[in-house]
Amino acid sequence: MEWGWPWGLAGAAAIAAAGCWAVLRPGCQWLGPVVRRTGSGRILLTIDDGPDPRDTPVALDLLDRHGLKAVFFMIGEKVREYPDLAREVARRGHE
């Protein structure tokens, strides 16, 4: 049993290294296919974990300034806490 934790640590390090490789190498497809160009000049922009009274208004203004739309993935608890801000996201045409 005294060799159990070193092997566990080595395994965890190998998994972490593989994960870093998959994330940091642009051509690596371990996490799925890599799409380089769509030809349409479009991207899907997502904004997660809001709404937040500090960051969401800044993001909304920036998107408006550039004529862009985004998908906001909101947390229900934060929507209950900041319902007016969640409505503002929808009012400005974001999903």
TrEMBL record:
One example GO MF annotation: hydrolase activity, acting on carbon-nitrogen (but not peptide) bonds
CDD domains per record: CE4_NodB_like_6s_7s
GO biological process, one term: carbohydrate metabolic process
SUPFAM superfamilies per UniProt: Glycoside hydrolase/deacetylase
Domain NodB homology: 41-95
Full protein name: Polysacc_deac_1
Organism: uncultured Polaromonas sp
Source taxonomy: Bacteria, Pseudomonadati, Pseudomonadota, Betaproteobacteria, Burkholderiales
